Amino acid sequence: MKDFRYLRRNKSTRWHSRPLAPRLRRLSPAAWLAAPILAALLIPLAVVPLHRGQPAPPALPTVTASPAAPAGPEAAAQEAPQPKVSVYLSRSGQIETLPLEEYVSGVLAAEMPASFELEALKAQAVAARTFILRRLLAGDRSGVPVPGADVTDTVSHQAYVSKDTLERKWKLGGRSADLAKLQRAVLETRGVIMTYKGQPITASFFASSGGYTENSEEYWNAAIPYLRSVTSPWEKEITPNYAVTSTFTISEILTRLGLNDRVIPASKNTTQSGMTKNISTSSELPVEVLSLTTGHRVKEISIGGTIFTGREVREKLGLRSSQFSWGRKGNKIYITTFGNGHGVGMSQWGANGMAKEGGTATQILKHYYSGISFTRISTLLKK
Questions:
Q1: Tens-digit pLDDT profile for residues 226-280
Q2: Three-state SS sequence of 196-259
Q3: How many secondary structure helices (H) and strands (E) does the chain include?
Q4: How far apart are CA 183 and CA 190, in angstroms?
Q5: pLDDT tens digits, one per residue of 307-346
Q6: pLDDT tens-digit series, residues 343-362
Q7: How far apart are CA 133 and CA 200, in angstroms?
Q8: Tell me, what's the pLDDT at 58?
Q9: DSSP secondary structure letter of residue 340
């Protein structure tokens, strides 16, 4: 991925209240006259940003539960007691139970580099929180191999770093500044989730796109109104391994696609040109892209006379994405993929690119999830 440079740790500022003295000393007339002058001198000091050279952060909006008046996810306030999340730790086979916000910190540590912009991290925190709350409310424990857990720590649900690992390898292992940054992103979005028509959304996300995200029904079966294809032009310039080429032999492809026992027809006289024209690798394995999705990925492709979806080819060949092109040199077949992941929902590298250009977490989430609102968990649970 791109050149990660960790940002400086931001020291949190705490305000402590003190009890008022029982009696106030009477000020002299000269002191009363001097008070406005002193205030004029001190007030500018109070509004100087904590970090020199950086603009003061904008005022945070208030999150409401009303879909008609959505607000940004940045506002943080006192929340009701948090739901608990029980995570199955795949390596140890143990179950770790912890408050929701601590779980979100563990997900953020696993799912997004701490070197990413703070606003991208905040967007990821809201997506992670939305994902798990939807699952908890639905009582969905699918994909969990043992009873008693709500979710696993793998990408089958959301990747997750355990509390013990965060303590030993992050806090005590030289990454305390990174951990503080992740925790800040979680704190500044505390208790906020994305909703559509009052319900938590399916907050799917992936690593990087090839320029566009995907409509949900063009990768999965269901058309989800807030998971629409949108432009995502930021990845190409900032994502390491944006385009990756994998090499196969013809026999490897035939085996993986289950074509060994099928008769391969003669190749058409076609030439390769990205993914917009029919292409051919050899007379042994004719290949023709039949259609593309709205997100510019392969929708249907004919390989050796058999039609596959782009998703099927991606999964059977272990490709990074279903946006790919084919070519041949000698006895080798080269498949170049663009981006990484299924392409539905928020692009993590795209979110970082938006944040680098000044985009807020609110703007990032509203770009990748169409027509969503922001709601507090406490408000939703009251219903």
A1: 999 999 999 999 999 999 999 999 989 999 999 986 655 544 434 343 443 444 4
A2: ECCEECCCCEECECCCECCCHHHCCCCCCCCCCCCECCCHHHHCCCCEEEEEEEHHHHHHHCCC
A3: 11, 15
A4: 10
A5: 999 999 999 999 999 999 999 888 899 999 999 999 999 9
A6: 999 999 999 999 999 999 99
A7: 7
A8: 36
A9: B
Structure tokens at 109: 């540590």
Distance of CA 94 to the CA centre of its chain: 26
Q: Which residues are paired to 289 by β-bridges? A: 301
Contact present, 121 and 185 (Cβ < 8 Å):
yes
Residue 170 near residue 178, CB atoms below 8 Å: yes
Q: How far apart are CA 334 and CA 326, in angstroms?
A: 6
> pLDDT tens, 251-262?
899 999 999 866
Confidence grade of residue 8 (pLDDT, cut at 50, 70, 90)? very low
Digit-coded pLDDT (tens) for 153-204? 999 999 999 999 999 999 999 999 999 999 999 999 999 999 999 999 999 9
Count of beta carbons in the 10 Å neighbourhood of residue 255: 13
Q: Angle of helix 361-368 relative to helix 348-356, nearest 10 degrees?
A: 140
Sheet holding 199-200, edge to edge: 199-200, 192-196, 373-376
* Euclidean distance between CA atoms 352 and 8, whole angstroms: 17
* CB-based contacts of 24, cutoff 8 Å, min separation 6: none
Q: Are 333 and 326 in contact (CB under 8 A)?
A: yes
**Tokens of residue 102, six digits:** 């601590």
Task: Return d(Cα 383, Cα 372) in angstroms, integer.
Answer: 19
